[in-house]
Amino acid sequence: MVNNFSPMFFDFIVTSALWFYFIGGFLLFFLFFYLLAYTLSNNRELSFQYLNHLFYKSFLRLTRLLVPRHSWQIDQDITKIKSSVIVCNHVSYLDPLIIISLFARHKTIVKTRFFHMPVFGWLMKNAGYLPSSTDDRFTFLMIKQVERMKEYLLKGGNLIIFPEGSRNNTGNMGAFNKGAFKIARLCQAPIKVLRISNSDKLFTPGKFLFNTRVRNKITVELIGSIEPDYLHAPPTVAELRNLVQKAFAAG
User: Fold this and answer.
1) Are the C-beta atoms of residues 72 and 97 closer than 8 Å to each other?
2) What pTM value is reported for the model?
3) Among 31, 127, 142, 175, which is most exposed with the fewest C-beta within 10 angstroms?
């Protein structure tokens, strides 16, 4: 019992340190810059996106420092992606943080209930993030963001989407929502397919503590690049979804 207690205690200490930084670091340091951007920035959306990118990047750097048994391998070509709809699998709460940390200019789709949260909802709305459903008072926000998406992508921004909609720890890809492919077709944008592996071994779904004790490699790979001929042979939404599913199967 003593032998089990000691490693779990270390997990608790590391987890507490990480969440203390995530909450305390935001309130004591980053919130000032968000307020500054809200007040003074000429482009509030891009400023908030960049601050989100920096905040998650710093959090993950601290994670790497405190949990050295987990190594990280990220394809260098990923950070060069621009003007694309980025589609990724979803196995851990860390996945959105990991992907956002790679892109200074980004938007993403977030569960609508998070837009109701104080501070967090304010951050997401000002960053130009999209609610996942249009069944409540955020319908107008969703429509406005979709209407502006083509221009945003043309100017170098990326839209990050997890088409499974929620975490999937079965080992197999879950059913894909159509939203990502509707937006890609509407905006005539290329689709970049990313795969995250083993982030769930660091922060397992359903558990509070980070798992610091296992040796593990977290990888983020670019496994597919889909660039349809929208002008001469525009694909259907179903065809785009099938191409992404094939990329995951081949990858």
Assistant:
1) no
2) 0.90
3) 175
Domains of the chain by start residue, with CATH:
2-250 (3.40.1130)
Q: Measure Cα distances from 120 to 23, 33, 107, 112, 126 in Å.
A: 11, 15, 15, 12, 10
Backbone angles phi, psi at 114, to 5 degrees: -70, -25
Higher pLDDT, 239 or 132: 239
DSSP for 182-245 reads HHHHHHT--EEEEEEESHHHHS-TT-SS---SS-EEEEEEEEEEE---TTTSPPPHHHHHHHHH
Output the CA torsion sign for 43, 45, 46, 50: positive
Q: Which helix (H) or strand (E) holds 38?
A: helix 31-40
β partners of residue 86:
160, 192
CA angle 195, 219, 46 (to 5 degrees): 70
Look at the block and give the residue holding tokens 């720890």.
Answer: 169
| Rounded average pLDDT over 118-133 | 91
| Residue 76 confidence (pLDDT) above 70 | yes
CA distance 161 to 153: 14
Strands 191-197 and 216-226, bridge-based pairing: antiparallel
- Of 154-158, 188-192, 202-206, the poorest mean pLDDT is in 202-206
pLDDT band at 166 (very low <50, low <70, confident <90, very high): low
Higher pLDDT, 139 or 112: 112
If we measure between CA atoms, which residue out of 230, 227, 226, 162 comes closest to residue 196? 162
